[in-house]
Known about the structure:
Low-confidence stretches: 566-576
Structural class: alpha+beta
Number of strands: 17
Helix content: 40-55%
Strand content: 15-25%
Amino acid sequence: MLRKMYMKRFIYFFVFFLLLTLSLFFVMNRLSSKTLEDNLIGASKNQLDYVKGILDGIMYEANMYGVQFAADSDVRFYQSQVIELSNYDSQMKKNEIVDRLRQILLSSRSIESIGIYWKSEESFLSTNNTLEARLPFKEVQERGWRIVEGSLYYFAVYPYIQKNGKVEPAQYVVGVKLKTDYLKSLLKKAVNNDSSNAFFLFNQQQLWSEKEVDNDLLKAVNSMLTPQPESTVKYDYHTKSDDYYVLSRYIEPIDAYLITYTRTNDFLQPLDRNRKVFLVSILAVLTLGLFVIFTFYRNYYRNIRLLEKKFSQVEQGNHNTRITENTDKEFYSLFRSFNHMVAEIQELFVSLKTETDLRRSAELKQLQAQINPHFLYNSLFYIMSVAQFSPDAVMRMSKHLAEYYRYLTKLDRHEVTLESELQFAEHFLIIMTLSKKIEYKIDLPSELASLPLTPLIIQPVVENAIQHGIEGRQGAHQVTIDVKRTQTAITIRISDDGKGLSLEEIHRLETQLESDTPPEGIRGVGLWNVNRRLRNTYGELSGLQFSTNDWGGLSVLMLIDFSAEKGETYATTDRG
């Protein structure tokens, strides 16, 4: 199950990497398309603004000439002068005005003709003095731009300025006709290439264009147009096969739109081709990657996972496991070495277990041997001291000493009960009370009486409390043994009201107990032995702790961590 999970993770990572690469490509492709389109639109807007600037200049020129001749004194007084002058002078005056009009045409590329029409006399002077040329002038009553017969005119009238808000009838009209072909030729400056087109749309009806405009596009654009004189408006137009962007600029004086549109497919086609090539490459990489994964799984991954599984079994203590599956040549030598290694480990563990059992047994006997003579010597000294004046005390002491050694001689196993170990310590305390004034108290909860305990673990601490605590302080006489249970451990606190230890002495004593070798001489050997045995038997969390009690004496906390025997680890701390 674990093998499949790891393999799935590898496949998921591979697919995720491909999807991430694909996503990044699409993002970059989209950004490239967007950047290209923005650049195209920016260029088209600049071209549109350029054409708009030219058109503004043309309209300003036509407007200026119209106003100029509408306010010209020769034109204004022409009719009255014609009546007063002779036919020759009248003709010369007429020729003079027409020559002035023709001079304008010579200096302008955009003006086709200029005419002046007097309404009352119905006389007409123009650079194009034909009957058809005067027709657009007859209906004009006010100045402005007009489309007449497919041509763009600017008309100026006299009087040019109306007084007091009254509308006076026009006396004469000055008309400036622009060259339609020239205006259409400006559209070339508003397109990028063959994928673009431009046209003028007057009154949303009349169309000027040098190239054919698609009717569907024209209808769609016509429905979207809104007059915004100061800005270029962008529209999008889509068909089943093509995409367009449309730019529109409204020319308010002539009520017309300058419109350009560009088909973006031609520009984006290389990017689309690159995207298709990339997708094909991704599919090829995906197919190749899956094939490599399958090959890796079949030839290597299964064998590596098998080896990992066998190592895990060895780690859990199963030294009988072997690799017997048929393997490829690449792994034959490795698996053979594994089987040989496990066989060697199995033999080593058997040898190590035997050696460890022998060592621990010898160490335990050695530690007990160090404690037993120590206690015996002290007990005999007490008996000798009371034998001279109290035979009854000798008998009582001998009785308890006999019970003490009976306890020792029956220690044919490594564990006793907590109750029997405390009875053993009590025999020692009773012996001590026969030789001096000592009061003791033992508090053992009944539910803990049958708790198994390593032997000879409490008495040395009690002996140390009397020998180095009570005997070192005048008037000291109290010893207490208090047994309690915590969540994961048993604490046995042995307290006395003796001379106690300073913080520096406690620190030195704790350092001494942590040593791998017992202290020199006999002082401290008992506590070192007890601490060492607790560590060896119940784990590193067990051992002795020291603190000063309320009497001013020393309290020794014996902490026994039973969780270590269950393969668990707990941190139990009691500072008293």
